[in-house]
Design a protein that fits this description.
about 300 residues; mainly beta; 5 helices; globular; about 10% helix; twelve-stranded antiparallel barrel; Porin; 12 strands
């Protein structure tokens, strides 16, 4: 990704920087992150398109996993508009150290199997690494979450703000509203990123870490069990509360195969905390998401 005060670099290095966060928005509960400002001639644009595969828990806190095809899309225009995975926004600041602007993002849905399809996705395979017990009647009927309300994808709106401590270190923040059953869920992400912890002519490793905070409506939708749901599912009533939802960290490795082709691999780990950790829906409080994709620059 380009930061405005960086010196010009080779095409391959530029490609690595621009693509740093392109895959993150493909996850169902991805942490909303934005690509850095990309200074370019007026009327121009930078675009990456690719395809990969992702292995992730079927829902936040699930023990079973899903494998899904992962389309990759990142576009930036000279006027500040950008699309990155399942999010879109606009850079409004001309400052070399402070970025901010509006942000839209799609929060993936969840069905009884815990594997709702995200808008623009390609579908999900059967569970990998999970063999249901003969006594697991709810899985046979339709999934571990049989009896729980199905949650459709939600369009969220909000804003982002990033501050560069140095050209390599960036503090990040996003605030999005519109998730949850009644579109009143709010989620805030606060984090820090090391844009290039290790780099060479063809390889770049970047690091990120952060926390997620949610309001009660969000927590009740994705981690709570209502009285109606408890009567038709295996779960007892649980009133989830808002507050700190998780702490997470990630590492990304970008490998420039050529000036136009890149292989990008991302590993993200998250640990549920607080009220969400105590939800009866949670089987494993610590989860990991792994993805890899190849992308072409147009």
């Amino acid at each position: 990704m380009h930061v405005k005060y960086c010196l010009p670099e080779s095409l391959a290095s530029t490609m690595n920087k621009l693509f740093f966060l392109a895959l993150t928005a493909g996850c169902g509960a991805a942490w909303a992150q934005t690509p850095a400002t990309n200074p370019m001639p007026d009327g121009s644009r930078d675009m990456y398109i690719g395809l990969g595969v992702q292995s992730a828990p079927r829902y936040e806190g699930a023990e079973s996993r899903k494998v899904s095809a992962l389309p990759v899309l990142q576009v930036q225009w000279s006027n500040g508009l950008f699309i990155s995975g399942m999010s879109a926004g606009m850079h409004l600041s001309d400052s070399p150290v402070f970025e901010f602007g509006p942000l839209l993002a799609v929060h993936a849905g969840r069905d009884e199997a815990g594997a709702g399809t995200a808008i623009g996705g390609v579908g999900v395979t059967d569970v990998v690494g999970y063999i249901p017990s003969p006594l697991d009647k709810s899985f046979i009927r339709g999934g571990r979450l049989a009896g729980m309300d199905e949650i459709s994808p939600r369009l969220q709106g909000g804003a982002f703000a990033n501050y560069y401590l140095t050209p390599r270190w960036r503090l990040t923040g996003t605030l999005l509203a519109g998730a949850a059953k009644d579109h009143d869920g709010v989620r805030m992400e606060l984090g820090v990123q090391r844009l290039a912890a290790l780099e060479s002519a063809r390889h770049r490793v970047s690091l990120s870490a952060g926390v997620s905070l949610v309001n009660r409506a969000y927590s009740e939708t994705y981690f709570g069990v209502s009285h109606e749901e408890s009567m038709r599912s295996r779960f007892a009533y649980f009133g989830a509360r808002g507050g700190l939802e998780d702490v997470h960290a990630g590492v990304r490795w970008n490998w420039s195969l050529s000036p136009s082709w890149m292989l990008t691999t991302n590993v993200q780990a998250a640990r549920l905390l607080g009220s969400t950790r105590n939800s009866p829906l949670v089987e494993r409080p610590t989860n990991m998401t792994v993805s890899t994709a190849i992308a072409y620059r147009f």
